[in-house]
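Message: Just now I want nothing more than another pair of eyes on a protein record. I am handing you a single protein, as its sequence and its fold in token form. As I understand it, each token names a local backbone shape. Take your time, and here it is.
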Amino acid sequence: MLSRYYAKAYTNDEERHGYSGMIIDKKLKKLRHITPEGMRDLLLEECTVRRQAESRLTGLFRRYGFSEVMTPGLEFYDMFVGDQQVVAEQEMYKLTDSSGRLLAVRPDVTLPIARLVSARLSGAPLPLRLYYAQDVYRLGSGLSGHNHQQLQVGIELIGGAGEGADLEVLSLAAQSLRLCLGDRRKGFCLEIGHAGFFAALVDETGVDDDTKNNIRSLIETKNYAALGDLLDTLPPSRTVDAIRRLPRLFGGREVLDDASHYCHTAASRAALDYLRELFGKLSDIAPDCQVVIDLGLVHRHEYYTGVVFRGYIDGSGETVVSGGRYDSLLSRFGDDMPATGFGVNVDALTQVLMRKGQAVAPAAPDVLVHAMPGCEVELFRRMEALIADGMVCENSLCASTDEARKYATARGIRTVEIVSEVNPL
């Protein structure tokens, strides 16, 4: 009704445009001090802690022989969909390029790196040890409270198969959590499962791909009631009972003994035997890390084929480390080779470190350098000399020396140096 009223009230385009401008201006005033949903600003101490965590992780990966790669923030949308969908369509930020082709703002790092390896590193000596530090953008539920933008730092070990590669990646995941927690030797854990065990059980039921994906999603989200309702529609069997119990198969070595009663195929037995080996060796490699078996860890990414894992630290309800083996993913790009890796949610880690009191306010400059009128050139020469000696300097924009001293006191700058014609550099 209101729009029709104004359409009648304004009789020419200029007036209607003026009214439209008022509406837009009101919207801009309303939005100018907030960020889009799922996005947030980072301030001062939080930036420092975040950079420190990133630096520690990338330094660790370099020391273990990994080299950095970067992928574009925009990829073709079609890369993330297909037979093995990496990210749900509704979770991607999408836009079009000048040719009308559909693009996605990077919602995942592993698949772009698989593309990069196939396109740019084909024929390179294997295995490839790569690391990255990049933002990912993924839409979540409006009520989830999760950030849609997340800094991930992680590794991809491409061309490495077998237990040795899996132990290397799991060990680095444990070290990543330990390193960022500093002197604390406890308070972090790794949950490990096997995508092959879930796949073997579901294949025994003979359900179609849509039902399989629904089961995976319900286990992943721990929606036990809906999972029970779906499984009730399937013919009763020990395999269906095993799938029903998957979310509860969580704990120590005894979980593997319990799960072995539901194994009817060589694939499911092999998955449990492999987990038993890894569990024992990883517990010895990282004795300060709590290692837990979680057979309900099916992971929402369908490209995982072997060991999958997640890492947690005290003080955070979010997954801090997530990864696993994805031996079939590179075949999408024509390179059939094994691969494994993980990513660290640096933003979740930063929040924990902030709450644990590891935030340090940015240090004040050592010297405030103030120039008397006509001495501006000498001021910058003096600042260059002080910086060369390792000092942190700030240029005074105050109108007088008294104002400069007051400003230095307010900022916590201990030294004020006056550059004048009497004492030029």
